[in-house]
Automatic annotation (TrEMBL):
Similarity annotation: Belongs to the PET191 family.
Gene, per the UniProt record: COA5
Role, per record: Involved in an early step of the mitochondrial complex IV assembly process.
Organism this protein belongs to: Ataeniobius toweri
Protein known as: Cytochrome c oxidase assembly factor 5
Assigned keywords, A-Z: Disulfide bond, Kinase, Transferase
InterPro entries: Cyt_c_oxidase_assmbl_Pet191
Domain of life of the organism encoding this protein: Eukaryota
GO MF annotation terms: kinase activity
Length: 75
């Protein structure tokens, strides 16, 4: 679920909730924090794979003509 904060500006972009959770997962992962690697390197190692897939599906649903009827995937 997305994390909501009171003093935060609302992001009205598509897939904003998944984007925020994906970013937080990468930046708080031990790969970045303890090992000091770049988030892109941690992605290649397979960390936060479920959120990466969900974010991809959400972005792909924006291009799908059927999503006009079904709505975008994600939150």
């Amino acid at each position: 679920m997305p994390k909501y904060y009171e003093d935060k500006e609302e992001d009205s972009r598509a897939c904003a909730g998944i984007r925020e959770d994906f970013k937080a997962c990468l930046l708080q992962h031990d790969c970045v924090v303890k090992e000091g690697k770049m988030p892109s390197e941690c992605l290649k190692e397979g960390h936060c794979k479920a959120l990466q897939t969900s974010f991809f599906e959400c972005k792909r649903s924006m291009l799908d003509a059927r999503s006009r009827f079904r709505g975008r995937k994600g939150y």
